[in-house]
Amino acid sequence: MQKNINIKNRRARFDYEILETYTAGIVLGGTEIKSIRLGKASISQSFCEFNDKGELFVINMQIDEYSHGGHYNHKPKAERKLLLNKRELKKLRKEVVTTGNTIIPLNLFINDRGLAKMNIGLAKGKKLYDKRDTIKDRDSKRNLDRIKKSFNN
User: Fold this and answer.
1) What is the mean pLDDT of residues 91-103?
2) Alpha helix (H) ranges present in 9-127?
């Protein structure tokens, strides 16, 4: 078993501009947490949504079935409830409804106490030209690092 689990959504910061971040707990079953501790989860295609009762759920998060689960195993792509304070939930819901922003998972990790937590971000979608600017900045930074490295040697 791995010591520290940190499953990232790498496309999130490229496709979206992150406005605010929150740390939320996740309601999981026994075999789900065991699979996450083995690092068998993916949040690359997932997003968050409110239901009718005002609860926040993560949709499309993939947690592979636990190998020793038997017939008690979980569904790999089930909706999973996120736990936040009531004040934070109201603020997020208001932002999503009024401005049309979205909530996306940024990374999934296990804290010091062994509980699964998820960093979620209130995000605004980037336009195509913003993505091009991001690529251009990344390339220029990479080239600058190469020049610095060759100059130091």
Assistant:
1) 91
2) 12-15, 30-37, 86-99
